[in-house]
């Protein structure tokens, strides 16, 4: 057999082996290696492995396998830390058992993989910055910086505001990558002098750190002084003594330091002055006696200026009125008012407003309105109208009818609230405007009679002959009462025409034998309202052969068609006669009453010749009174006795008593006496007795 000698060194498959191991791997972790090959056998083969140089992190484990193989493993003895040593390099040496021993080497490169085990760290725990309150948007305040020992995504840092209760960060923004903090909106030193921000730095693995940023706002003179009035009295009585306090106010400036120092003065005004009270408090007082008749109002201007650069100022105006007495009555802005309302208005409709002004001040100028009281004749118009006591608005309380009430006139009173109050009156005329709420009414021909009367038309009538005229009225006014007439229906439509404006019914052509004797027309009467209203009139016409025998054909035709026409005519004539007789009787009765009332008022007692008295006395004693005597019983104004009058003559023939005041003929005065020769009574205050007497 050939004895082996150690003439070969161990050889590794690769000259360099690289392992990537996570830095947080647990100690004891094993990593397999390809062992070295030695073609020698027996003890000359690989017997051991070692690491050079030795380190604290790794050791090598070697053992032979039962079937002649070998197992080589790197054993992690200590946890790796990429931040301390990101890479470990050493040599793995394989040694055989020859003499002298031979070795083989391969380089082991351990790359430590990063784990996010380091949070970001700010360079400062507290950052201080300043920014002017008038800094424009986008101005840089300061820059924050944080570092992270990790690498890659674990070492990438982003910046953000940490949510805080005061929300101070709303005025700022931070760049997520660079950490620059900038202004996003105008700052106000007076609102907040300092802003506390909390900045969070977060790496790619989610670990974060916080820092605090204090931003101080630098004041600039951007606020003018403020004048705050604590008390102010106006009006001031014109009897106020000099030194009377009119107003107390304080002057403030929201700026700090020199910018907040304020001086104050009153523009030249001889009647008032400014007096310092305490620190920044001032009093506005009267400096001399006041006279309202010379000046009723003072305009006082107070100026406050700060010590900033440039200085800012503010002014405040005090308007001081001098109190007045109620020496002016309200005055209406018009001498009279004319208002309009359409008829059929809604209840409580507003038609207008009256306005009165009072030159006085305060309660003396507060005007209330009311309807002025009037007599019984004005009560009806007052019931239609109401006026608002505060604003003078005039209302119509209920619907009005133009056909009944054309206008309403009331008197409105305006009274102030002075003591004693003063007032003024004005006339308000409310004109009712017409609405088209009445249809036309036909007056002729009368439409309430049945049957309809007929107009007579001779057969010789030519075109244009006037048959009749339709007369209608409309209770409305204006264009609502403008009537137009139209032929709505006719027995012979082409025979008659109606005047649109006049209502005249005329022939449009001559009559012919073919035309019916009795014609009936329906005329439409329409007003000019919107919408229009209308009525109809029925007109009858009889075509007659000549007017000489007009009545006979009329009666004959009427008897054939309708016997009621003659009866209607008789009734009309009878009614006219009865009415005339009634009027005549009524006139006579009224005349008698008037004459007797005059006689009673004057206490008239009529006298006659003495023999008439004796004859009447004899007749009374006998219990009879001859018919030849007329008598009168006169009741004097101062007596309750009956007095019998003497006859005018000694003997009177039998006659019928006349009427009072009636004229008597010659036969009424026997003996040939005329009324002029009639004996007169001696009393000049009496009148001669009539030839008859009346109880």
From TrEMBL:
Cadherin domain mapped to chain residues: 13-122, 123-227, 228-332, 333-442, 461-555
Gene3D superfamilies: Cadherins (2.60.40.60)
Sorted UniProt keywords: Calcium, Cell adhesion, Cell membrane, Glycoprotein, Membrane, Repeat, Signal, Transmembrane, Transmembrane helix
GO biological process: homophilic cell adhesion via plasma membrane adhesion molecules
Locations listed in the record: Cell membrane
Alphabetized GO MF terms: calcium ion binding
Keyword Calcium in annotation: yes
Protein name stated in the entry: PCDBD protein
Native species: Crypturellus undulatus
